[in-house]
Structures are given as structure tokens and as C-alpha cells.
Specification:
The complex is a heterotrimer of chains A (844), B (327) and C (127). With 844 residues, chain A is mostly helical. Helices cover 65% and strands 3% of the residues of chain A. Chain C has five helices and two strands; from the N terminus they run H-H-E-E-H-H-H. Chain C has a two-stranded antiparallel ribbon with strand order 1-2. In chain C, strand 1 and strand 2 form a beta hairpin. In chain C, helix 2 packs across helix 5 and helix 3 packs across helix 5. The longest helix of chain C is centred in the first third of the chain and has 18 residues. Classes of the chains: A mainly alpha (844), B alpha+beta (327), C mainly alpha (127). Chains B and C meet through strand 12, helix 6 and helix 7 of B and loops of C.
Chain lengths: 844, 327, 127
């Protein structure tokens, strides 16, 4: 315990009258129907986790139906068609609508208070992400009741999912619905990355950051690199379904395995995307319950980062039975086993922490112990299936069903329950019942083991996955009946949990139950709608343990920014490594644009699934209009520097490299680049499976068009540079005109380049439906056109802002992010041209 | 005096667990009931891994139990390095080396082996016995192989992805459009082994099974199968043969020696001698043949076989009798 | 909703199975037929798959609609509307129906005489 009497805190007492009231006023939450306009992350986080739990219940009910059907051989409870929808929806909803959103929700909910920010930097983006997820997910669920639910499995392998074998709209629902929800996950990831890196409390350097913030940083980073693969895959498959572009049709040069590579390049990291945040919960909960600081903090952080990297090298272990060369299988087998090491490090770090302290067997502790038991079994069966020959037997059997449920329930659901029991006192006037909670933990533990352990046996007895019925006499009867009983025991546990929630959960941010566990991290500071009254200076990893007066001083307003300095919502932006205060960022308050933009984006996607193209375009236009309105008010420009206490005067809303929006744009560009990389991967992959590339008879696009496109792209880049020069020079009328011309010129040049590119393909006689070669070339051009379209809108906003006098001199953040994005579009365009026009020539 | 409930439950659980574990060892489709070298090798790997996993699991549980009792233990760093790095590294390296050694046995390529091409179709298996790449016999669903000899399976598909799997003989391998995968399996014990499609392939994925029968008398079987279909003997069978053609069955099915030469459905030249019909779904007898013809869509909804529900009773019987006679 | 109803029946069947200690040979004994073993009969019915054409209570997967449902068969006076429903007639019928009623669609089934008696014994437990 150090430093009990911090002598000179930044702000003196007493605080001026009216300061707290003013702070409360700007952070006041809208009521009634206007709750939909709230953008504050803590509030959105609650909606988010609530929705995720709702989807969990829904998918759980689907599982109960399946288990009821499989209780007995040759049962006739549900027919094949419903069963196929059930397991497709169960997997899809659990993975995409529950697991990832639930942990993302916990991040959005906990991170602001854990790093003592008033809010994360892009509250409207979080609100948009949430509403897109909520509306899109709900429509997705409804498809089940209209009998148009996807039924080709959550992995959607073509050709089963393609137009020939699934001609109805069910696959479109999946591709557009899930592709869209992935976009929402990426939006959340951008918020989390910039939030963790830039809005931590002063002094919370990276090595003092709570482990949960670390895992969420890695989590969000993994989303940025994994989810674009999924978006690329779904986009290609949807293009094939809608327009007959044969990416996956073998007769025309496509390959079904291309989908499997893209899907699992996303799908394997997905498992760790789900597990790492849950491990992060444990790294927060275990030290508190053991009453000792976490042992092996550095080892855990390194293990988390290592897992993040390794997880991208494992995807092929989902494809061991596709007939790949033995040498590549050995590599992926070894890599799959290696990932056990970082998990082992974390598990033993928690065990060491428990040993160093004295863990009370509270409800969260029971879930932690349940986690250790169940996840260890899942990890061990994971090592087994990483062994290639064993996987040839186990793959696509109930052994895998057992394994993945041990991993995901052990690795995610148990930690989530621990987290809910642990953190509810932070958001509720009452904590949840310890007595009920313990029964819930025991029921879930027994149920999970009863349901899933016998499945190992079913699988080894030869029972494949995804069968709606099975014959009598293969020895699968007993194990299946046990699994079904176990499933209903789990259901009983979940029902009891809901009862506990109904009885004890009383949401409140201002009068919560408080630090009932006597924890050491900042989320347990006294809070209001504005989070903490003042923003503390962090000097250790467990500030509440090490600075006994911290809570009182923070609440008294003795730390930084005890009121509102600009009369708006705001937070302190700090440097990413050592968290030195850099500037004060004003944050948007409630508004309708995120909700409406999300609603109409969702509508546009869902209307596309039913081929209502015109209404879809209308909804899309409205959504874009909403986003434009939102952007219009986003960049309010720099303000006079303000005093946050301790003689620290910080600028307000800076521009340039250190600005939060620049960081956000960089992350977005990483996403866009990954998606582009996936398209290039598809290009090279299709090349390797086709003996003739380009195929015989396919025309060669003329190099002169490509040269013109390249020159136009370079011109666009120069125009962006020149525009910046003009903007930063003196703000005279003539340069202002010049600036507008440059912005328009840059956008026009980028547009002309992609048009030239498209024309060259068409003139060469290439048609996307003819061959996979044509299809992938057009897909790359279409993606370039899509980004160019986004760029045109951004440039239009900059142009309009210039006309309205909302840009100029230091007020130019919206221009800078547009130019940054513009440069990226140029780079991508040039790389695309180089790869598609030069490579076949060079190779041949 | 009866024992306390908890101990009775524990005993019941132990019995169930033991029964389940033992049950896993045998069954017509069980991976740990090997009847060939591949399955044997994998079964060895499996048992070694189960044993190893049990030991590791107990070590972790003991560590947790110790941690719960310990106070102010200072082994932190050492525990993380020993338990989290050294222990898994040693165990996994040993496992990998062991696994690669054993699996090298699995990938052995025979010089000369009977070659059977199996083509996955929604939801049955076309089976072609090849000689120098050309089919010398086409049949369906029920495969016969010689005992104790390696058989090369050439796997492909006509529609979506399927996966060919006979657990008692070895691991599975996918059938992927545009690709040809090959695996070699061998049955060391005469008998029938059940297989099933392992990759979800649509509506009736659950009812896409097959059998592999290993026989000592393979040459005789092959010669018999290569002969054209038996001529009908009884009046009823003759009527069935006529009805088969009249009802257009020949548009989808081949019966060698007759005008029926369709290739959409299974070859029926010797259907009467197969153990199952409808891809391992039903036992093969006149009753099931008649029921399948009359109401295939109720048994396997979505299959390409229509329900012939306009046949009169004796007609249906005649067809069934004819097909059953095609041994 | 039919799914709900089937859910209930699955639950009932599952608990019956549990209560019976997973003894699949236990059949409801309602009418004893001389020399017949209804338990074995039920097993035979499953093996030769009579259920392809008939709904047969107590036999899993027996949901065929090609022929008549055999629910309540013991109550029926006539076999196929032609023969008196006695144990011996029924045993002959299940073994070789066309020899008794040439117009029937039901083919001869691969059952021995003893087996046919057992099958008949089971069918006559269906009330």
C-alpha cells in the first residue's frame, strides 16, 4: 500500500457550486422513446449484453428442440427440414448473434469505467453497431418462423448453399444477414481499439492497463483481421448466388475449397475472439476473489497476444479431411497443438493466483472452477483432434460437437456467467443472489457434463453431426438420451438464472450496489451517468487497493476534469503507450442518426435478401443520408484550450496524426486492406486450381487502359496532397476555391480510374459469369468501385463543409480522414492493377 | 439399509460412464472397433491420447485443489513456467512424434490394389469397380471388398460435398466437386461394416449410409455381379419386369440385360442381393422394396425417387418380387 | 401445434424408456397369445421394417402410410377386411399375405413360422 496521502491532487476542494449539476446535465440520459437516441457506451453496453442474452436463450431453445428429437432413435418430433434449420440457426445465432456480440458488449459496457474514461471516442459508432446488430439479428431470427431460415449449416459450404442446391432465399438470409452483422462487429472493434489505446486515465500506461483492456485490444485487433475474410467470403458467395459469378463452381474454374479457406481463416480466429475476452473476465475476477494481485500479468499479456497471432495459423485444421497434402497438414497439426501453450500459461497463472490468496467459494468462484474443469477437457480433446489421423475419424462427428461445446461453454459461457454475477453490482442497485447463483452454477456444471461428455462416445461410435435421425441398433441410444437429459438440466439452470435476474437485477448507474467484492480496479469507482466525477491519475494495476483514498478523492472531484470544461460531453485523450493527457475530446450527445441509419441499413440488407431491389436501394440511400447528417455534425472543430486541473491546459479537438478520428480511420483502412487481401488470396488460389490462367479464350484486358487507370490514381493522390497544402496555408477566398476543385478532382480521378479498369475488362470480352477468372477480376474491380463510392460521399461532405464554412485552417479533421482514405484507395487500386494485369504476363 | 443417495448416484454415474466407455469399443460403425490397419493405428493413437489426457486432467485438478487450500503460496512464477510451458511442450512434442510415427503407417501406398470409385450423390453412393481406370462393374451403396487386401477408393461427387467414412476401417475423406481424393482401406476381418456420409449434404444427409462387406470369395462375387440380371422365373416376377419398364423406372435405373439403362438412380442389376436399400436406410426384403416404391418420399423426403402411389396392390407386389429376384 | 404435441410424446416415450431401464424388449402385455412372444415379435417387426408401410405403436420409426395403421389392431375383427383376426390367421398373413388374399399389396415377408407367431402375438397386444 503506497501513497496514502496524495498531497497535491490536481483540483482543490471545495468544488465550485453547480459544477456537478452541470456535469449531470450534459450526461443526462434521455427518457421515454428518446432512449433510442442514447449513444453513451455504458448504456449501449447494457442494451447490447441484454440483446446478446436474448439471442442466447433463443438459440438454446433451438438446441433443446434438437436434443428432444435426438433423445430416441428414429424419432419423429421434428422433420428433416426443420431440423436442418434448427442446427443451422443454433450454430449461427450462438456464434454470430450471441458469443461475439456478448463479449463485445461486455467490452463496451466495462471498458469506459475500467479505464476511467467518460466514454469511448466514437459513441455514435457503438450505437450504430448495436442497433444494426439488434435489428438485423431480430429479422434473422424471424426467418425461422417464416420457414425461410438458412438450412445449409452455419458454415454454409457451397455448393450445398449455392443457387443450384439451395434455390430459395434461405442462404441469402444467412449471407446478407450475417455479412451485415459482421460489419457491426467491426464497427464495435474500431471503437474498442481506439478507446483502449487513447482514452485511458492519465498514468495508466500499457503495463498498468487491466488485463481485460489488453484482451479487448487483442480481441478487436483479431476482428479487424479475421472478419473481413468472412465478409469477402459472404460477398463472393452472394455474388455467385445472385449473378452467377462462379467463384465456387468447379465446372467453370471455381473451387468450393476457396470458401472453406476464407470461412475458416475467419472461423478459427473466431474461436479465440470469443475465448480471449472470456479469459480476460477471469483475469479480472480471480485476483479479486483471491484477494491478491494477478500473478504472471506479463506472461498472461504475452500469452494473449501470442494466441492472437497463432490463431491465424490454424484454420486448415478444420479441413484435414479435404485431402490436402500431408506436409501442410503436419504443419497445421503442430501449430494447433502449440496454441495449447498460451492457454496453459493463462490457466496456471490463475491457479497460481488462487494459490497465492484465499479464494472464497462465491458464485463467480464456482463458475471459475467450472471453467477450469470444463475448458481443460475441451482443450485436451482439442489436442486430440489436432492429431491428423485421429481427426480423420473424429471430424464431423459428435466427438467434435462435444469438443466444441466443452471449449465454448467452458471457455466462454462459464466465464460470462462468472462475469455477470461479478459485475452486476456495478450496474444494479442489488447484487444477484449468492444462494441462487450457486445452484445455477451447479446445475449448469452438471448439465454441461451430462449433455456433452457422452457425445464424445456417440462420435467415436460413429455418429456423424447434423443428422436429424439415427437408426436403432448402432449403440447410440444411451449416450443420446443422456445428452438430452443433460441439455434439459442446463435449461433448468438457465431458467433459474433468469429468475435470479428478474428478482434482483435493478438497473441503475448512479446508485449501484458498489464495490461488493472489494476489487482493485477502476470500474468499481463510484459512478454516475458521467462515469466518474473526476478522472483519476493511475499509478498501479490495482489502484483501489493501492490508493485507499482514491475513490473518495475521485468522487469529491479532486482529480482531473471534475466538471465539464466545454459545456459538452467530453473525455480526456491520452497517449497510447504511457497515457499522458494530450487533448480533450468533445463527444456527441443523444441523437437519432445512429438509430435510423442502422435501421435503414438493416432494412436495405434484408430487402436485398428477398430481391426487393428498389426498396433496398431506397433504404440504403436513407441510411447513407443519415450517416451524412451524422458526419456533418461530427467534426465540430478545435476550441480554446481548457484547464482540467493541476495547471494542465489541454487543447480541445485537435487535428492531425494524434486525433482519435485518424486512429479510427487507420483501423478502418486495415479492415479494408484485409478484405482486399482476401480477394487477392482468392485470385491466387483460383489461379493455383486452374491449369490455364487466364483460361483459354478469355480476352486479355488492354494494358493501355490499365496505364490510364494507374495515372489517374496517381493524380488523385497528388490532388489530395495539394488539397492539404492549400487548406493549411492562409485561408483566402482563392485557395478556398482551389481546395474545392482539388477535392472534387481527386474524387473524380479515383472514379475515372475504376471506370477505366472496368471498361478494360468489358472491352476484352471478359464476362463475370463466364469463368472464375472473369468473376474474380470483376469482383476486385467492384470492391475498388465500392470504396471509391464511399470516397465520393466523403469527398462530397468535405466539399459541402467547405461551402458551408465548416472547414478551413486548423478545422480540417474531416478533410484529413478523407484524404487518408483517398490515399488508401489509390494504393489499393494500384496493387490491384499490378496483380491482375502484370502477374499472369510475368508468370507466363 | 440402503446407501445414501449421493453414493448411489455416484455409483449409478460410474456404471453409466463405464458402460458408455465400454460401449464405445464395439458396434457396426465404431471407430474404436477396428477391422483394418488404418483404423487399428488410429485406435492406438486414440487410446494413448485418452490415457495421456486423463493424466493431464488429473494433474490440473490436483493443482486446482492444491491452490484452493494453499495460502500465500509463492510458487507463482515457477508454476506458470512448469505447468503452462514446460509440461505442455514436453507432452505435445512427445505426442507429435508418436503421432507422426504411427500415421506414417496410415499413408502407405500399395503398388497394386483393387480400385473402387465411389461417387457421392444426394443421397446415395454410386460404386464403380475400376480396371485400368475403366469401370468393370457399377453398383450402389453396398460395397464388397476382398478380405486382407488393400483397396484404393477414388472419391468424387456429382453434386455437393459428401464425405466417405467407414469408421471400422479408417478415417474419412471428403468428396469435393472438381477434385478427386484417394484413400486406401483394408479390412482384415471378414464381415460387414457400416459407413455413413460425414459431411452435411442437405435434406437427407442423415439417411446416406452404406455398407462395406469384406468377403473371402471376392472373385466369385465380382464375376457374379458382372453377369447381366437374372431372367424372371415366376409369372409374378415376369409381370414385375414388364411393369418396371412400363412405369418408366428405366429412365433412372439400369438393369443390365434389359432395356432399363438410366443413370440417375442406383444400378439395380443385382439389387436383390444387396443387404440394404435406399442407401443403408432399410433392410432389403420384398416388403421394404414395395414400401419404398410406393412411398419413397415419405421415407426419404426430397430424394429423387418419386412415390409410385398409383400402382395396384398386385402390381406393387410384382415389382417387389421382380427386384428381389435380381440377386 | 403438432411440434408441441410431438414434443410431449417424445418426453413421455423418453421417460418410459428410462422407467423401463432401457429395456427395449418390454412390451405392454394386454392379450396373451398362446406360444407367442410379443417382445420378440416387436423386435422382428423392427428388423424386417414393417414400419415402412404401417404405423405400428411401440415400434420406433414405424410411421408408414402405404398400408393401414396397425394401432388398435387387436380390436379389429378382420385382417385386410377379409380374414378373421385370429392369432393363427394373423401369423399366416404376416408371413405370406398373397396366398390368402391375392389382391393384396402386401408381399410375403421373410419370417419363419415361429417368428410369424411372435409377430402376430405382438400385433394382438395393440389395443
Amino acid at each position: 500500500m503506497s501513497d496514502t496521502t496524495a498531497p497535491d491532487l490536481p483540483n482543490p476542494l471545495p468544488r465550485p457550486p453547480g459544477e456537478l449539476e452541470e456535469l449531470e446535465r450534459v450526461w443526462r440520459r434521455p427518457r421515454g422513446i428518446r432512449r433510442l437516441t442514447e449513444v453513451n457506451n455504458s448504456q449501449i453496453g447494457l442494451y447490447y449484453i441484454g440483446t446478446a442474452v436474448m439471442f442466447f436463450l433463443f438459440a438454446g431453445v433451438l438446441a433443446l428442440l434438437m436434443r428432444a428429437q435426438l433423445a430416441l432413435p428414429e424419432n419423429a418430433l421434428v422433420d428433416h427440414d426443420l431440423y436442418n434449420q434448427l442446427f443451422t440457426m443454433h450454430g449461427t445465432v450462438m456464434m454470430f448473434l450471441f458469443a461475439v456480440p456478448a463479449v463485445e458488449a461486455m467490452g463496451v459496457l466495462l471498458l469506459p469505467s475500467m479505464v476511467a474514461a467518460r466514454d469511448l471516442p466514437f459513441p455514435r459508432l457503438s450505437a450504430y453497431a448495436f442497433w444494426a446488430y439488434f435489428i438485423g439479428g431480430t429479422i434473422f431470427l424471424v426467418s425461422l418462423f417464416l420457414d425461410v431460415a438458412p438450412r445449409a449449416g452455419w458454415f454454409m459450404y457451397p455448393p450445398l448453399s449455392s443457387a443450384e442446391y439451395t434455390p430459395d432465399v434461405s442462404s441469402d438470409f444467412w449471407l446478407l444477414g450475417i455479412g451485415f452483422i459482421e460489419i457491426s462487429a467491426i464497427a464495435g472493434a474500431i471503437e474498442i481499439i481506439v478507446g483502449v489505446l487513447r482514452t485511458r486515465a492519465p498514468g495508466m500506461s500499457l503495463d498498468k492497463m487491466p488485463v481485460f483492456a489488453w484482451v479487448m485490444l487483442v480481441f478487436a485487433g483479431m476482428i479487424v483481421f479475421a472478419f473481413p475474410a468472412m465478409i469477402a467470403g459472404t460477398a463472393l458467395l452472394e455474388l455467385e448466388r445472385a449473378f452467377d459469378w462462379p467463384f465456387f463452381i468447379a465446372e467453370r474454374g471455381g473451387d468450393p475449397l476457396l470458401w472453406q479457406h476464407l470461412f475458416w481463416f475467419f472461423g478459427h480466429p473466431e474461436v479465440y475472439i470469443i475465448f480471449l475476452p472470456a479469459a480476460g473476465f477471469l483475469s479480472m475476477i480471480v485476483p479479486t476473489l483471491a484477494r491478491r494481485p494477478l500473478i504472471g500479468y506479463r506472461a498472461i499479456v504475452l500469452a494473449v497476444i501470442g494466441t492472437g497471432f497463432l490463431s491465424f495459423g490454424l484454420w486448415v485444421h478444420h479441413m484435414f479431411t479435404t485431402g490436402l497434402p500431408a506436409i501442410s497438414m503436419s504443419f497445421f497439426s503442430a501449430a494447433s497443438m502449440a496454441v495449447a501453450i498460451p492457454s496453459g500459461i493463462q490457466i496456471f497463472a490463475w491457479i497460481a493466483t488462487i494459490a497465492a490468496g484465499r479464494m472464497q467459494l462465491t458464485t463467480p468462484a464456482l463458475f471459475v472452477l467450472g471453467f477450469l474443469f470444463i475448458f481443460t477437457i475441451g482443450g485436451l480433446s482439442g489436442v486430440m483432434v489436432a492429431m491428423v489421423p485421429f481427426d480423420w475419424q473424429a471430424h464431423d462427428t459428435y466427438f467434435i460437437v462435444a469438443h466444441l461445446h466443452y471449449v465454448l461453454i467452458g471457455g466462454m459461457v462459464f466465464p460470462l456467467f462468472a462475469a455477470i454475477y461479478y459485475w452486476v453490482p456495478m450496474i444494479s442497485r442489488r447484487r444477484l443472489s449468492e444462494r441462487i447463483g450457486k445452484v445455477v452454477a451447479v446445475l449448469l456444471f452438471l448439465g454441461v457434463n451430462l449433455a456433452f461428455f457422452p457425445m464424445h462416445v456417440s462420435g467415436l461410435m460413429g455418429m456423424p453431426r447434423r443428422v436429424y435421425t439415427y437408426p436403432d441398433g448402432l449403440g447410440w441410444e444411451v449416450t443420446n438420451l443422456l445428452s438430452t437429459i443433460g441439455a434439459f438440466v442446463i435449461a433448468a439452470g438457465v431458467a433459474l438464472f433468469l429468475f435470479d435476474l428478474a428478482r434482483n437485477l435493478r438497473l441503475s448507474t448512479t446508485r449501484n450496489a458498489g464495490n461488493v467484492w472489494d476489487a482493485g480496479t477502476l470500474e468499481w469507482l463510484p459512478t454516475g451517468t458521467y462515469q466518474t466525477r473526476s478522472i483519476p491519475i493511475v499509478t498501479s494495476r490495482d489502484p483501489l487497493w493501492d490508493q485507499p483514498n482514491l475513490a473518495a478523492d475521485v468522487e469529491a472531484g479532486r482529480y482531473y476534469l471534475p466538471g465539464t470544461a466545454t459545456g459538452r460531453r467530453e473525455t480526456i485523450v491520452t497517449s497510447s503507450v504511457d497515457a499522458r493527457p494530450q487533448y480533450v475530446l468533445t463527444l456527441p450527445g443523444p441523437g437519432w442518426t445512429p438509430f435510423f441509419s442502422a435501421a435503414f441499413t438493416a432494412a436495405a440488407f434484408m430487402l436485398l435478401t428477398v430481391k426487393a431491389v428498389i426498396p433496398a436501394i431506397l433504404c440504403g440511400a436513407i441510411a447513407i443520408g443519415g450517416i451524412i447528417a451524422w458526419m456533418w455534425r461530427a467534426d465540430i472543430g478545435p476550441r480554446a484550450p481548457v484547464d482540467i486541473g493541476g495547471g494542465l491546459r489541454l487543447p480541445v479537438n485537435i487535428t492531425g496524426r494524434n486525433a482519435h478520428a485518424t486512429a479510427g480511420t487507420v483501423v478502418l483502412i486495415l479492415c479494408a486492406g484485409t478484405l482486399f487481401g482476401c480477394l487477392l488470396f482468392a485470385y491466387f488460389f483460383l489461379w493455383t486450381v486452374n491449369a490455364d490462367w487466364p483460361p483459354a479464350g478469355a480476352g486479355a484486358p488492354s494494358p493501355s487502359w490499365a496505364a490510364i487507370a494507374a495515372v489517374l490514381l496517381l493524380a488523385a493522390s497528388l490532388a489530395w496532397r495539394a488539397g492539404r497544402g492549400v487548406l493549411t496555408s492562409h485561408d483566402q477566398p482563392r485557395p478556398r476555391l482551389m481546395f474545392r476543385l482539388l477535392v472534387l478532382g481527386a474524387a473524380a480521378a479515383a472514379t475515372a480510374a475504376v471506370v477505366a479498369d472496368g471498361v478494360s475488362l468489358w472491352q476484352a470480352g471478359l464476362r463475370p459469369a463466364d469463368s472464375a477468372y472473369g468473376a474474380i477480376l470483376y469482383a476486385i474491380t467492384a470492391y475498388q468501385a465500392f470504396l471509391t463510392g464511399a470516397l465520393i460521399i466523403m469527398a462530397g461532405i468535405v466539399f459541402a463543409r467547405s461551402l458551408a464554412g465548416r472547414i478551413g485552417g486548423p478545422w480540417r479533421l474531416s478533410f484529413e480522414v478523407t484524404a487518408l482514405f483517398g490515399h488508401y484507395v489509390v494504393v489499393q487500386g494500384l496493387v490491384a492493377l499490378a496483380v491482375t494485369r502484370l502477374f499472369p504476363g510475368v508468370a507466363s | 439399509m440402503s446407501p445414501p443417495i449421493s453414493s448411489r448416484c455416484a455409483r449409478a454415474a460410474a456404471v453409466v460412464g463405464a458402460a458408455a466407455a465400454l460401449a464405445a469399443c464395439d458396434g457396426p460403425q465404431a471407430a474404436l472397433d477396428p477391422a483394418g490397419p488404418d483404423a487399428e493405428a488410429i485406435s492406438t493413437i486414440a487410446w494413448v491420447m485418452f490415457g495421456g489426457a486423463a493424466i493431464v486432467f488429473i494433474v490440473v485438478l490436483v493443482a486446482v485443489a492444491w491452490a484452493l487450500r494453499a495460502r500465500r503460496a509463492r510458487e507463482g512464477r515457477g508454476l506458470i513456467i512448469a505447468g503452462g510451458v514446460v509440461f505442455p511442450l514436453v507432452v505435445l512434442t512427445a505426442l507429435l512424434v508418436f503421432g507422426l510415427t504411427v500415421s506414417s503407417r496410415i499413408n502407405a501406398e500399395p503398388d497394386d490394389a483393387l480400385t473402387i470409385r465411389v461417387t457421392g450423390k444426394q443421397w446415395w453412393w454410386q460404386v464403380d469397380y475400376l480396371d485400368a481406370g475403366e469401370p468393370v462393374l457399377t453398383t450402389a451403396n453396398d460395397i464388397v471388398v476382398p478380405v486382407g487386401a488393400p483397396v484404393r477408393f477414388v472419391l468424387t461427387t456429382d453434386d455437393v460435398i459428401h464425405s466417405f467414412w467407414v469408421p471400422s476401417l479408417g478415417g474419412k475423406l471428403d468428396m469435393i466437386p472438381g477434385r478427386i481424393n484417394e484413400t486406401v482401406l483394408q479390412a482384415d476381418v471378414a464381415g460387414a461394416y457400416r459407413g455413413q456420409c460425414a459431411e452435411f449434404c442437405g435434406d437427407q444427409h442423415a439417411l446416406m449410409a452404406f455398407t462395406v462387406a469384406a468377403t473371402d470369395d471376392f472373385a466369385a462375387w465380382l464375376a457374379a455381379q458382372q453377369r447381366p440380371a437374372a431372367e424372371p422365373v415366376t409369372d409374378l416376377e415376369a409381370r414385375g419386369a414388364a411393369l418396371f419398364l412400363e412405369n418408366g423406372c428405366g429412365a433412372c435405373h439400369t438393369i443390365r440385360g434389359t432395356d432399363a439403362d438410366g443413370t440417375i438412380g442406383p444400378d439395380l442389376t443385382h439389387v436383390g442381393g444387396r443387404p440394404t436399400i435406399a442407401a443403408g436406410t432399410l433392410p432389403n426384403n420384398q416388403g421394404t422394396l414395395a414400401g419404398w416404391i410406393a412411398d419413397a418420399q415419405a421415407i426419404k423426403p426430397g430424394a429423387r425417387m418419386p412415390s409410385f402411389d398409383r400402382l395396384a396392390g398386385p402390381e406393387l407386389r410384382a415389382l417387389a418380387a421382380y427386384l428381389a429376384s435380381l440377386e | 401445434m403438432t411440434v408441441a404435441r410431438r414434443l410431449v410424446s417424445t418426453g413421455v416415450a423418453a421417460s418410459l424408456l428410462l422407467a423401463a431401464g432401457c429395456d427395449r424388449d418390454a412390451a405392454p402385455q394386454t392379450r396373451i397369445v398362446a406360444d407367442g412372444d410379443p417382445g420378440h415379435g416387436r423386435q422382428l417387426i423392427a428388423e424386417v421394417a414393417c414400419g415402412v408401410c404401417h404405423i405400428i405403436p411401440g415400434v420406433r420409426g414405424a410411421a408408414g402410410t402405404v398400408g393401414p395403421s396397425l394401432a388398435g389392431f387387436a380390436e379389429r375383427n378382420l385382417i385386410a377386411g377379409v380374414l378373421p383376426n385370429t392369432p393363427s390367421e394373423l401369423a399366416r398373413w404376416v408371413r405370406d399375405a398373397p396366398s390368402l388374399v391375392p389382391e393384396t399389396a402386401m408381399p410375403p415377408m421373410p419370417l419363419s413360422e415361429d417368428e410369424a407367431v411372435n409377430v402376430a402375438a405382438y400385433l394382438l397386444t395393440l389395443r
